[in-house]
Amino acid sequence: MGRLFFSAAFSALLLGAGLLISGCATAPVGVAPARVALGLDKLPFSYEPLGVHNGCFVEAVNFYDHYFRKLKDDETQWAQVLEWGNEEGDLKVRSGHAVTVFTLRDRLWYYDVNFGVRSLDLAVDRRSDLTDVGPKIFASYPQFRPILARYRYDFSQQPAKKPVDFLFYHANPDVRDATRVASELGRIRPVSVAEFDLKPGDKTQVSAAAVFTFGRRVCVYFPRQGTFEAPRFVGAVDDLRFINQIVRHFYPEAGNLRWQSGGYLLFPKTEK
Q1: Beta 116-120 vs 107-112: how paired, if at all?
Q2: CA 16 to CA 28: how far, in whole Å?
Q3: Domain of 133?
Q4: Is 132 in contact with 126 (CB distance < 8 Å)?
């Protein structure tokens, strides 16, 4: 793979300025929304959740994409991805969450992978004020202390030149999740999927990550961790050295980073 040319100072800047939406917040104990209760029937377009692990941010981005793609002729369209961290202890952020806030039929709504589509009891002209929007959404998670809330939005991008296939039949769950994310988000933007080896013990495990851009930030989705957002204008989805720097930060023991090679015709490869 070649020598990495990232300096220690650059590595600290990259990882210090980035944000990891990790361990996505789950609904309070006793709340288990059924598929029929997600409120998706309120939408003028069909939407199917990705259903991946630690996927709140990529779910929010995917819903954002669907919204703008399906309502491209609606002059009143507006949507933002709202993300925040959850404080644990002395200003430590150990988990986070993301939802999509949007307007529809002169009302304000949000999509949360845990609860589906919900209306916000706010005037549409208050949509940009997080001091109004945030508390109404955070109220669904009384067990957390939200901090660092912010809106994210995307810019016009071109779809991936080579679509990524969703390897739904793959034996490795990380590969399934990463390719699921890449296959959907790649409809709007460049994406890539990388694999790497982990050695938690004597046995080597294979994990994977989906890499994409949102808001001019390279984002790396790890099925076991969540999504890392790099600072704006830093890195590229096809830069394996850059991706390796991020992977090694969250998995110091990771090695043999390579591009995911795709699927198989009849039978999956057996992991050794």
Answers
A1: antiparallel
A2: 30
A3: 19-152
A4: yes
pLDDT in tens, 44-59: 888 999 999 999 999 9
Structure tokens at 62: 């995917």
Same domain flag for 115 and 177: no
- Residue that finishes a domain, picked among 92, 119, 152: 152
Look up residue 190 and give its two tokens.
């460049």
Number of domains in the chain: 2
Q: What's CA 223's distance to the chain center, in Å?
A: 10
Q: Other C-beta atoms within 10 Å of 261: how many?
A: 9
Of 96, 82, 93, the closest CA to residue 135 belongs to: 82
- Find where tokens 């090679």 sit: 261
Beta pairing, strands 93-104 & 191-198: unpaired
Decide if 138 contacts 160 (C-beta within 8 A).
no
d(CA 4, CA 193): 19
Last residue of a domain, one of 152, 181, 216: 152
Summarize pLDDT for 138-186 with one digit per residue, the tens. Answer: 999 998 888 889 999 999 999 988 889 999 999 999 999 999 999 999 9
Other CB atoms within 10 Å distance of the CB of residue 166: 18
> In whole angstroms, what is the distance from residue 188 CA to residue 157 CA?
6
Q: What is the largest CA-CA distance in the chain?
A: 58
What pTM value is reported for the model? 0.86
Whether residue 76 sits in one domain with residue 194: no
